[in-house]
Amino acid sequence: MYRPDPVPHPDARVMIVEHEPAVRDALEMMLVLNGYRALGASDGPTALAQLRSTPCSLLIVDLARCGMDGESFLREARRLAPAEPPSVVLIADADDAPLPPAEAYLPRPFEWGALLQQVTRLLPRSAR
């Protein structure tokens, strides 16, 4: 039986905003297996509803498919946690420009290892 190592990031919670259930589930599993707490949302409005009760340190957002304007979504997500707004990784197509401000951008299709590298880099020090 597989037993993951002890959780290296016990305070870090990552939200994945992705409309494809299989991709969202796979990303959640990858994060959990690497010691993060992860939750998913199928679109921006669902993610905002979850963020009202469950703060997250990092958002991974499939920008073109979040179901609302990306800049509006990010502004509202950051407003919900003004003391510690979440870091953001945007997954976007090359033609999605202009992109809203974020800490990292990954082109679609993205490399899973590159995403995990960004997650590790962006989590607040207190969550490591």
Automatic annotation (TrEMBL):
**The keyword Nucleotidyltransferase belongs to this UniProt entry's keyword annotation:** no
Record keywords, A-Z: Phosphoprotein
Give start and end of each Response regulatory domain. Answer: 13-123
Example GO biological process = phosphorelay signal transduction system
Under the heading InterPro entries, the entry gives:
Bact_response_regulator, CheY-like_superfamily, Sig_transdc_resp-reg_receiver
Q: Fetch the Pfam families from UniProt.
A: Response_reg
Which SUPFAM superfamilies would you find in this protein's record?
CheY-like (SSF52172)
Q: Which domain of life is it from?
A: Bacteria
Q: Report whether Phosphoprotein shows up as a keyword of the record.
A: yes
4-aspartylphosphate modification sites?
A: D62
Task: Enumerate the PANTHER family for this protein.
Answer: CHEY SUBFAMILY, STRESS RESPONSE REGULATOR PROTEIN 1
Full protein name? Response regulatory domain-containing protein
Organism of provenance: Vulcaniibacterium thermophilum
